Amino acid sequence: MRQTPTSPGFRQMGVRRFGRMNWLGLYTLSRREIMRFMSVWQQTIFAPLMTSALFVTVFALALGRSRGEVMGLPYLAFLGPGILMMTVIQNAFANTSSSIISAKMQGNIVDTLMPPLSAAEILAGYLIGAVARALIVAAAIATGMALVLGQGVAHPAWTLAFVVLGALLMGGLGLLAGIVAQKFDQMAVITNFIVTPLSFLSGTFYSVEALPEPFRALAHWNPIFYLIDGARYGIAGVSDAPALHGLVVCALTVALVLFTAWRWLATGYRMKP
């Protein structure tokens, strides 16, 4: 029987039929993002672990015990949390950016844009994938640090908070980069000239207090510094900046990045013709 505007349960074309939240659509997108990186776990999970192990091995062989203590810690104990967070943020960025740019290049971005998903639901789906990958990598590296270096976690709640904030921040930035870039070469430029320098020059391998001015002051304007510093506080119990201050800076930065990503998705910026 054909429905008319006066028929019970009639809905006009374009009206959402899922209520305030399309939980099934969100679950499907999140599951797709998680399965996407888990299907190639050798590249997305095992490779970052090998890279982290190589960093620690090279620094241990090159410096040995001659480096001395940093912030009251043996150098490898100081280095470990920075390596962990650097790997986390790089993987979170890679997860969302590669997903968006691959879909755009292959022409199947319509599979994400056409389903009845709001901008917030699309954003949440991609971020869940980034956070899941970041947490798996972080757990694996933390386990390796405990087994090889004998380094535990001093403040688990703080560590988890900074890992999740780091994944959200870099997952959001990866989403923005994927939207802006139109080809893989442009994405490589963003990764090589923005993401990698910011992560390497944020206190991963040294204390920023050892930097001369104005580089020390500039380091405190880098939000990734607070992620590295916060992870170091959570794992080793020491930090260059107050942990609460770093948490607030990271939370505000995440809010700004995610709002921008939501706005771009809502307007279809560089995603829709």
Automatic annotation (TrEMBL):
<dbReference type="Pfam" id="PF01061">
    <property type="entry name" value="ABC2_membrane"/>
</dbReference>
<keyword id="KW-0813">Transport</keyword>
<feature type="transmembrane region" description="Helical">
    <location>
        <begin position="243"/>
        <end position="265"/>
    </location>
</feature>
<feature type="transmembrane region" description="Helical">
    <location>
        <begin position="75"/>
        <end position="94"/>
    </location>
</feature>
<feature type="transmembrane region" description="Helical">
    <location>
        <begin position="123"/>
        <end position="148"/>
    </location>
</feature>
<dbReference type="InterPro" id="IPR052522">
    <property type="entry name" value="ABC-2_transport_permease"/>
</dbReference>
<dbReference type="InterPro" id="IPR013525">
    <property type="entry name" value="ABC2_TM"/>
</dbReference>
<keyword id="KW-1003">Cell membrane</keyword>
<feature type="transmembrane region" description="Helical">
    <location>
        <begin position="188"/>
        <end position="208"/>
    </location>
</feature>
<comment type="similarity">
    <text>Belongs to the ABC-2 integral membrane protein family.</text>
</comment>
<feature type="transmembrane region" description="Helical">
    <location>
        <begin position="160"/>
        <end position="181"/>
    </location>
</feature>
<keyword id="KW-0812">Transmembrane</keyword>
<keyword id="KW-1133">Transmembrane helix</keyword>
<keyword id="KW-0472">Membrane</keyword>
<feature type="transmembrane region" description="Helical">
    <location>
        <begin position="40"/>
        <end position="63"/>
    </location>
</feature>
<protein>
    <recommendedName>
        <fullName>Transport permease protein</fullName>
    </recommendedName>
</protein>
<dbReference type="InterPro" id="IPR047817">
    <property type="entry name" value="ABC2_TM_bact-type"/>
</dbReference>
<dbReference type="InterPro" id="IPR000412">
    <property type="entry name" value="ABC_2_transport"/>
</dbReference>
<feature type="domain" description="ABC transmembrane type-2">
    <location>
        <begin position="39"/>
        <end position="265"/>
    </location>
</feature>
